[in-house]
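Reading is simple: each integer encodes one residue's backbone shape. An example follows:

___
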Amino acid sequence: MSSSIDYGNLMHRAMRGLIQEVLEDVAESGLPGAHHFFITFDTTHPDAALADWLKDRYPEEMTVVLQHWYDNLEVGDDGFGITLNFGDSPESLYIPYDSILTFVDPSVEFGLRFETQGDKASKSDGDPLPEPLRALRDEAKEKSKDKGDDAPAADKEGEVVQLDKFRK
């Protein structure tokens, strides 16, 4: 037995178990209501499987969206496989739970961020959103302030925003 309890690893395992359970429910019943997920993962993880052109385009990390179109969601104990549409080109991915950096369901403002030893201190603000989404959110808040609009965000209509300008 070790001389201390590794709470960090225990918490990471529990949070990844939560992701697995959520994805199992989605695989069985589909996405309920307005729920959708932004999942950022480490593309350099040895067990991550994605097309070569996606690895070339996203050499370090990639954010995928599970919302309107996905297929073949298969959830396992170590990760999940899914087919997603990239510009009318369906591609299969395998994402190990250990490679997940963030898991966000913006419909209910829920997010998990997995810190690693190599993470920079500048990301320690507790915000679970990936940087491109954080920038979009902050930009929307600023526009709202400029217009003097004090209505709660939940009461406003959605706006479609292109994420391509934030891709690396």
In short: The chain has a mean pLDDT of 77. The helical segments are 7-29, 52-57, 131-146. DSSP finds three helices and seven strands in the chain.
